[in-house]
Amino acid sequence: MTSSQKNISIIGPGAIGLLFAGLLSRHHKLSLVVKNSSLKDYQEQDLQLKGDINLRLKTSEINVITTDELTENPEDTIYLICVKAYDLDKTLSSLKPYLSKKSSLILTQNGIGIYQQAAEILGRDVAIARVITSIGVNRVNPTNVIVSGEPNFSFSTPLEKDERHEAVFKILSTIGKVERKETIAFAEWEKVLVNIAVNPLCSILNKKNKAIVENQDLETLTLRIVKEARLVAKSEGFILDQLSDQDLLDKISNSRENVCSTLYDLRNGNKTELEYFLGRVIRIANSNQIKTPIMKTLYHLLKYYEESMKLKVSS
């Protein structure tokens, strides 16, 4: 391993985790951490990215391990945390015994307050970076992912400088376009604005992202939702004018063939991250006495839809 190569362990082999595995495997010593029950699937099947990124990674090119084997990781390992937001606390608590003062952590979850959750569990010794993706990914089976768009990332860290953060930034720069954000909170709000624009409507309609930009009424409704979200962000001190309405629509258009993560989870009877973006924004709005009638309506419709789909899949 050369001096520029890093030891990276990816925790959470979902769509985002497999995307990072494919992109990083050519440049770094990589391990994919999976559950014992899934170990055989990942050891016997090649990893494939299809769509706007085409890549096949043979089983011999990636080290698939379980959590028990993390004891063999070097102290300066970088941990890329790709589990869903609702699994974050449990994952970090399990990972904590394996971390050292030389470790680094990358958080990729959707939602507001993700960094704060991690910091409360891990403290300040571990270097934590917040990385937010702007690319559509859907997993069609355990080792196959459909990619929509180009790999773009926003990167943010705590205000204090740490050379471990810079190492993470350089790694990301080798696999895609990386934009530094001034603060973690701003980066989270900006991504949540996109999530709120896309996920509720497309999930309720059971449509790909392109439904919004191909229908004038849906586009108008989307911008009304975004207006509510901007007001809530402003009440917290975040002016999101840098991401204009047109920029937002362009982002949606660029991922037009993507099935948003909320809809993907609903179709598969899985729990969604609804509480971590739409739910948290509504709770902030309530505490700041900001009216959000459209977001609240969508929230309750999605909660009903989520429970209905769970029952349908389990029956």
Provide keyphrases for this structure:
315 residues, alpha/beta, Rossmann fold, N-(1-d-carboxylethyl)-l-norvaline Dehydrogenase, domain 2, 2 domains, eight-stranded mixed β-sheet, four-stranded mixed β-sheet, globular
User: What gross morphology would you assign?
Assistant: globular
Uncertain parts: none
Rg over CA atoms, rounded to whole Å, is: 19 Å
Mean of all residue-level pLDDT scores: 91
| Helix content range | 40-55%
CATH superfamily of the largest domain: NAD(P)-binding Rossmann-like Domain
Helix-strand topology string: EHEHEEEEHEHEEEEHEHHHHHHH
Return the CATH class of the largest domain: Alpha Beta
| First and last CA, distance | 50 Å
Class derived from helix and strand content: alpha/beta
Number of helices: 12
Number of strands: 12
Into which percentage range does the β-strand content fall? 15-25%
**What is the CATH architecture assignment of the largest domain?**
3-Layer(aba) Sandwich
Domain count, please report it.
2
Q: Main sheet, how many strands, which sense, barrel?
A: 8 strands, mixed
* Spatial strand arrangement across the major sheet: 5-2-1-6-7-8-11-12
CATH fold annotation of the largest domain: Rossmann fold
